[in-house]
Each structure stands twice: as structure tokens, then as C-alpha cells.
Amino acid sequence: MNSSTNDRRSFLNRMAAGAGLAAASPAAAQTQNRNEGRPDFPFLPQYTRAQIHKSLKQSSFDRTGGNRDAWAIAAGGVYEVFRADGPGVISHIWFTIAARSADHLKEIVLRGYWDGNSKPSVEAPIGDFFGLNLGVYQVYQSEYLACSPGKSLNCYFAMPYRQSARFTVTNEGSQDIGSFYSNIDYMTVPRLPDDALYFHAQYRQSAPCIPTAGDAAKLNLDGRLNYVYVETRGRGHLMGVTLGVLENGNGWWGEGDDMIFIDDESKPAINGTGSEDYFLGSWDFGGRDGAQPFAHSMYGAPLIVNAERTGGRYCCYRWHGDNPVAFERYLKHTMEHGHANNRGDNFFSTAYWYQSAPYTDFPALPPAAARIPQVKTA
Fold this sequence. Notes:
mainly beta
């Protein structure tokens, strides 16, 4: 087991442990008294210790006892795939889908709501949420998201909630979904620690990005025309992004720098050295004729097709779990589209972050037809 997996499990166990220490039951108080003055036994893995949570699952299993373990979702239909009253934590989401439409990963929208909010704090086309930003399946594994053989989608972001949680899927396509399979693992706990934050995921796109011209295409210090992954107000930390790029012209799309604004809207606090560097590759991921897909725990580009040519396709991800980008009041994560924004490719992204209060001030989601990747040449 790698260290990052241990980190994720430790996070869940710390959350559960914090809830247990705050519980006022006599049994919990007696256990706490017995442990006073004793070491924390760091040599014991957390899974060998007594747990205080209750493990549960909500799924699409056949309620009649038969083998029809999936939901059909009509065109235009909305299906509630999860509802729970808190406090609790979603620990894992798994979906697999059988649909006639070749564009169903872009047409189906996943939305998540915390603590009774009428607006979502999670909103993205289902493929984009799972890192398949160009609407095609690609087998890969990362720390928080994965796509397995058989077209199964997995998410391991922990999602705590204090009062309630609800997830829906909406079929915005023109064809019915024959089978939508779902398994969502979660736990109930006595209470959450005071500093537990709410999970967020937001989709954005520029299809195409608008290239700059003249002198504006030479220098860029303020990031005003950059592609924006996320902009939010409040307190929290950024966990990372997924990005799909469809090239509208020959050449390398990745000369753009990442620029992250933290608690100051006037200038970036973090400046990177290139898009492929932000995704922790280098040298155009191998170049026009030598580009190689890769997928690692915290970063990757698992899809690279027709590199550096018109119609070229890339899917990338970068996680900040080793050093979440913390903000107290404001965050805007941006990236140039080409050096000083001189390219006009199609960008499709999802940003993932945690925030102290559920944030719902999202830009309007583009209609389904506008989300389908298409080459757009001048």
C-alpha cells in the first residue's frame, strides 16, 4: 500500500476519531479515561483500533430481490442516487453506465448538495467529474479518481456532511439511459470535528479559448485573460484539477503557466513554468512524435492522441494532496492557454476543493450540446 493511500485512510480515521472524542456517551468517556496517560501506540495501524463509525452503502440493487440492479433514466430525467441525514462521510463512489448515446459522459450531469442546500456544491458532467474530460473512457488510476476496465468510474474523495447529503444524476441527452449502476459507500458518525470542510467540484469550459493578439500575446503578468479552473470566496483549500484539451491547430498547447490567486485578487501568489510542468510532466510530454500517456498517484496525462496536431486530444490531472493550496478569503486558480494566452484550443475542466461552508455560487453549466468536444478551426 502506498503512503498516499495511507494518508487518505488516516484522514478518514482522524475524522472519525475526532467525532468519537467529541461524543458524550458514557462508554466513550470511560474509554477516554482508560487511555489517559498512555501512548498513542503509533506502531498499530488505524484499522487494528476499535472504530466508532457505522459503515453503510446506498446502491442501485434490485429492491424486488431479482437481478435488475440498475436504474433506467429517461431522456431529460433526474434520478436521486444518494440521500442521507448526517452527520456522515461519503468515502467512495462507483458508477458504471450502459447508454446508447456515444456522448453520455458529457450529457449526464452529477450534482451534490450538502446540508439541505437547494443549489449544488458539486456540479459536473459525469465524465468530467471522473477525469474523462473529453467524453471518452480511458483506463487509469490516480489517488482520488480512477476508471477501470469495464468502464467503471471510481471516486475516493472523502465528503463529510453535518446535516444531510444528496446526489442526483440528470440525463440531459436525447436518448434514454438503459442501465445506471451505482454503489456509494458512506459512514455515519456521532459528530464531525469542528474543522471538517465540505467537498466541492466545479466544471468549466472554454470551447474555444480566445487567443490574444499583438503585444498582448507576448507578456502576461496579471493573468486577466487566463483560463479559470475555479474562483471561490471563503476559507478552504484546493485539492486539484482535471483538464481535457482538444487542439484547434497544430503545435504545442502547453506553454501556458499556472497562476493561482490566494486572498489577493490583484496578483497571483503562485506562478508556474508551463502547463505540462504543472501536470508534472515535461518537454511536451515527449513531443509531437514521442508523447507517452502516463498515470501516477498524484499526477498524469492518461490520454494523449494525435499529439500537437489539429484534433489532438489530451486528458490531464494534478492533485495537491501533499500540499493543499490553502486560502482564507479567496481563491482563483488559472492557467494560460498557450504562452500569454496566444492559443485558441478547447479546454474542459473540473476543479476539486474543500471549503468551510457549502459554496453554491457556480457559473451556469453550458448546455449538453455545447459540452461535446468539437474541433473549431478559424
